[in-house]
Design a protein that fits this description.
By secondary structure, this protein is an alpha+beta fold. The protein is built from 13 helices and 8 strands. The strands form 2 sheets. It has a 4-stranded mixed beta sheet, with helices on one face. A 4-stranded antiparallel beta sheet has the order 2-3-7-6, with no helix packed on it. The chain starts with 6 loop residues before the first helix and ends in an 11-residue tail after the last helix. The chain binds flavin-adenine dinucleotide.
Amino acid sequence: MDFDWSPELLELQREARQVAAAAVATLPVKEDSWLIGTSREFSLELAARGWLGMTWPESEGGHGRSPLERFVVFEALIGGGAPLATSWFADRQIGPTFLAFGTPEQRRRFLPDIIAGTSAWSIGMSEPDAGSDVASISTRAVRDGSDWIVDGAKIWTSGAVDADWCYLIARTDPGAPAHAGLSELVVDLHSPGITINPIEDMTGNRHFCEVVYDGVRVPATNLVGEENGSFRQVMRQMEHERGGIDRLVSNRALFDDVAPRADGRDPLVRQELAAIETSYRIGRHLVLREVLGQAPKGFSAVTKTFCTEFEQRVVDFCARVVGPEATISGRVARNLCYAPAYTIMGGTTSILRNIMGERILGLPREPRPAS
Ligand SMILES: Cc1cc2nc3c(=O)[nH]c(=O)nc-3n(C[C@H](O)[C@H](O)[C@H](O)COP(=O)(O)OP(=O)(O)OC[C@H]3O[C@@H](n4cnc5c(N)ncnc54)[C@H](O)[C@@H]3O)c2cc1C
């Protein structure tokens, strides 16, 4: 088996690395660029190169490229710190959700702007009292003629303050069992009744937001997929969110910049460097299996857990390399403060381990009664 990329893929990788290097020349932070690197200009650049909607069918306006080509491009862009947060959620999961569940009219309406890099999307799932347990959300959408009226509050909505749209999960049937009464709505974030309050995290960044919905009217045509059928759709969407290269390379640029300062004469340092490189390659294979559709159902829980724990190991290593500097300021300090988020966002590691136990390994959900 030949594990080398073809000359065409290597050329694409070289091009994407150059684009990333040019983009980060003026940016202070290279890490976590898929989440905090907001730039409308860079979205247009990605679109001009045909790197948005890369794998989507040409009949839907996409570029019909292979999953490997997309993998190569985004490993290089995110690993190099390119500011692609403005387009990332739409390209990673909202577009694929429209392709899977949207009506032809919705696909015609929303996909072209995503592919052109002119619309920015956010995801409104979590609430102050509902994070891990999506089924317990209480934001309501009540049908009123040809609209839904939305009331409630979402939290940790990444990028909402800069976004045009929110892909919202709301309760549409309060009488149904918790998992069965949820639906998905596309909400124009400029609608009357929406208040967006950015929340400053401990690194000083304000990318995630509280979003309050007060009697917000949403056209009924903006309901995506099956009314009250969101739970199944969300699970599909999470596969895109958990199994991608963004979960492995968020702080690759930091490692590349700090590793040369490590004391290679120390056998323990050499051992850790080897472990990090080996783990990167394992993580890459896990992601490749997801990307190529070869991973078993639900396996993205394993992929995300391995990859995000790896990212935390990377910054721990970088902190030990730079020593006390890591506690003062700069990129290592910032990434050290940010790294706990890796194993929280997109589903906490505890929840993912529950999924591994229950859905992949088939372990019993409840302790067996004592005999
Ligand atoms: C950087 C960042 C960006 C985010 N962006 C978004 C976004 O764009 N949109 C969005 O909707 N959300 C977003 N989130 C929210 C994220 O999805 C939630 O934080 C996450 O799902 C956990 O929910 P919670 O914070 O309410 O914690 P809780 O669900 O309250 O969990 C608290 C703790 O209890 C543990 N726990 C809970 N239930 C169980 C259980 N059954 N078994 C074992 N342990 C359990 C958890 O593992 C965790 O350690 C983001 C979060 C972060 C950190």
